[in-house]
Structure formats: C-alpha cells, structure tokens
Specification:
The protein has 198 residues and is of the alpha/beta class. The chain has a single domain, classed as 3-Layer(aba) Sandwich (Alpha/beta knot), CATH 3.40.1280. The protein has helices spanning 45-52, 67-70, 109-118, 120-123, 151-162, 173-186, 188-195; strands spanning 29-34, 56-60, 77-81, 88-89, 100-106, 127-129. A six-stranded parallel β-sheet has the order 2-1-5-3-6-4. Its EC number is 2.5.1.25.
C-alpha cells in the first residue's frame, strides 16, 4: 500500500515540501525536458525548479513531438544548457539583450545525452555552460565531482549569472530540506560511514 502523496510536489504528505517552494519570477524562461526515469526519483529536483519558477515549464518524455513549438516562444533566444566544446559560458544580460529560453535536459548524463540523440532539434541548439568548479550541495552522491550539480542547482547557478544581482537561492530550500530528511532517515552514523570524509 502506497503512502498518500502531495499532488503538487509528489512527496509523501508527511514530507510535503510545498511550504518551502518559492514563487520566483525570472526574465529567463526555463524549459525542463525530463527523462521519464527521473519522475519517480526521490529528489526529482527538476520538478522542484519548475514549481518554484513562474516562468518555467516541465515536460516529461524521450521523444518530444511538439519540440518545435516548445522551442519557439516569441521574444526569446533559445540556448541549451549542456556542455560541449563549442558551448559558450553564460553571461549576465545587458539591457538590450533578448531574454533566453534556457532548455535544460534532466536525467543522468547518459539519459540526457539520449534525449539529445533522440531529438535532433535539441542537439542542434546553440549551447551554453556554467562556470567550471561549482560544488554541489547534494551530500548523498557517491562521488560528486566539481561541476556535477543537480538540475535545480544548475538552474539556480545559471539564473544567478544571467539575472545578476537577482538571487534564486530560495529555489534550493526544498532541495536542502529533502537532503536533510534523507540524512535523518538513514541516521547520522550511516551517513558518516557512507558519505563522510568528503
């Protein structure tokens, strides 16, 4: 028997995060393309980001039939947030810049690459990347390397650069609460044994 679930954040009602999810506006439009395997993931940070941003949309799938329409909102330049040799570092907007539609694939690196492979329109987009060396707050990962961020962390970092001096840190509150909850559930001793000494 499954536990009752919040219909908004999809967490068990006893662990609902909705009170921590902000309602932030952004000049940038964020389009999250989520691999179906991520929907039931314990963290599902793409959903947290989509819920916390007014100008965001989350679409789940492997092949996106309506991708052409999704990639063409009027008044936006489209960029894919995904590393590549020709990816440009994100820069703050100037007053004359048209805002970005920032397309963010959500999944493991392998699944995200698969989304690009299955959707040639996506793979053909000009790419942007985050500054190197960012450290994840996701303390439960087995081996988080520099720059290995959760989806919500990557979005926050991108928006902080683009829309400087605006702060999007409140988007990380439900993410941090989720991690604290998981650490509490496993117990401090187990956490230290498996994830300490970082």
């Amino acid at each position: 028997m499954s536990r009752p679930q919040c219909s908004r954040c999809l967490r068990p009602l006893t662990h609902c995060l909705c009170l921590l999810i902000p309602n932030l506006d952004s000049r940038t439009r964020v389009l999250l393309l989520q691999h179906p395997s991520e929907v039931s993931h314990a963290l599902n940070t793409a959903r947290l980001a989509a819920l916390g941003l007014v100008n965001a949309e989350l679409v789940v799938g492997e092949v996106f039939e309506d991708l052409q329409a999704l990639l063409n909102p009027p008044g936006y330049r489209v960029r894919l947030l995904f590393p590549a040799e020709d990816a440009q570092p994100l820069q703050p907007y100037t007053s004359s810049d048209e805002p970005l539609l920032l397309v963010v694939p959500d999944g493991t690196w392998r699944k995200a690459r698969k989304l690009l492979h299955l959707n040639p329109l996506l793979a053909a987009l000009p790419r942007v990347m985050l500054a190197e060396g960012a450290v994840s707050r996701y303390r439960l990962r087995k081996a988080p390397g520099p720059g290995e961020l959760s989806t919500v962390e990557a979005i926050v970092q991108a928006l902080q650069v683009l829309e400087k001096p605006a702060s999007f840190e409140p988007l990380l509150k439900p993410f941090e609460a989720l991690i604290e909850g998981q650490i509490a559930a496993m117990g401090e001793e187990v956490f230290q044994r498996n994830h300490g000494d970082r």
